[in-house]
Amino acid sequence: MHVSFRTRLTLFFLLLVVLPVIALAVVAIGVERTNAEQEIDGRLSQAQRAAEAPYDRQVQRAARAVNALARDTVLAAAVQGRDEVTLQLRAAELRRRRQLARVELRVRGVRPVVIGRGDAIAVARRALQGSGGRLQGEVVLYAIRPAPYAESAQASTGFDIVVTRGGQVLASTLNTPDAASLPLRGPVTLGGTRYRVTSFTKPGGGDAPIVVRILAADTADAVDATTLLLLGVLTTFLLCALVFALTAARSLQAQTQRLLDAAQRLGRGDFSVHVPTEGNDEFALLGKEFNSMARQLNARMNELDVERTRLQETVRRVGESIGKGLDRDALLGIVVQTAVDGVGAESGRVLMRDGPEGAPAEAARAGDVSAYLQLLQATEEAALEDQEPVEMEYSGANALARPMYSQDGVFDVLGVISIARPGRPFTPREQELLAYLANQAAISIENVDLHRTVQRQAVTDELTGLFNHRRFQEVMTAEVERTKRFGHELGLIMLDIDNFKRVNDRFGHLQGDLVLREVARVLRESSREIDEPARYGGEEMAVALPQTGLQGAYEFAERVRRRIEDLELPLLDGSGTLRVTASFGAAALPRSADIDKDALVAAADAALYAAKRAGKNRTVKAE
Fold this sequence. Notes:
Strand content: 15-25%
Largest sheet: 5 strands, antiparallel
Number of domains: 3
Number of helices: 15
Strand order of the largest sheet: 6-5-9-8-7
Helix content: 40-55%
Low-confidence stretches: none
Structural class: alpha+beta
């Protein structure tokens, strides 16, 4: 007679498992509850010592740093002299060298120097004394941040850790909103789970102390006091069940072992595994389903390997092409979209700094950033502060931020690229892919900036910041052609600084350079966006005025002339001020005029020298 697996399993559990477990639960709960509570309390006591010891070591480390700082002669001199810059530098150097979480220097007469986050713990403090033993201030050092300490304490004790200060949770290995309201000692229920709590208190560096709670799962309710009776009842049932279980056990052992071996091979990645299937019982059906699952997994893994290889090659090709682009906005858009697609994220963005000290601002985004905005902001802030990649998790979502480093040999951060998705952390391969894209983007951004700088220098006069003579000639050629094609007017003024040689001869060329720069600044500030001010040569300058007639050019020249006349330039030797004037020639190309660029420039230049001959500091219209 064939006995089904279900029948054998029912008999096995009924005679060897179910009845003894029921008897054990009825008889043993009372006795073992007390033993379990005592055991948990003992383990909690040991855990408290194990958690308190590393905290005290961190405090001692901070104390050693405080003592070393108190002997710092450079710091003492900065405290005595109220040197805020040196205080800042010494505090930053101390935090880096000692690997501290936070440094606070409070010196009388100087703004407090605070470096590091406000949630740091393990504090040591010392008064700062000046000459004569007078109290000058105080130094407060924090050795570690709460999250690394909580993780370390959990690893050393095996229990959950909650760190609070003033009722605020600084770090917790429990994902529960009730962590701040836990008692200091005793039992508590969180999320349907009973815990036993113990705690210790340490100075917090402010008004509120640091409280570290240690939580162990309370299993005292699972046992009873009559363990001996349970053993007797269990032995009786085991003897009764033994005869019935032997036959089923032999059959089950062989079938179970085959499934176990196959599962282990599958767990090691061997998807070619095949389980022999004999008969038509439940084990045979299970083996068939297992074989079918292994075949499907093997096919899917092969598809994923092909897809992963294709995707990585595609991303690398895109990354290499990015390194050759000169459109910064399009470049950053491609980078963040490629990063989102390459790691299966839902959204991402790029923040760029406007200069080494500029605040980061969003330059490109991909996907719905608003759904993860707070998490992205926190991750980006940490990455920019630490200048290292940072990954964070909150409410089931993960974010990864990677700084984009300058490639010129200086460890500067140009910006940061961040991505976010729900459900799972980013793998090392995905982190490596984001690092590759960030490096390619940094190279491309610097190429774009270098290209723009070279372009700007090619057409700009270095001293005045105006367009140079070459650029002026190109602009005039283009504007004359545009005027002829569309029938617009084109104005031109030429100006020459009066008696400029006398300024150089009397006050030196550096003073002359200052005059040129200030006159150029007036010219720039007076021009419209479509105007083209340029240094024509020496102390002579010119402005092309598109869509402007002769009268408009004349009025523009007069405004500039009066502003130059009102300038009061300081003498570089400090002996007073210098006033200068300029002469102007104004000309214009009428609508549909049959005249070339050189004739227009010659007309404005002739008018300029007419102004010179007429007494200088005036504007003359061309004939």
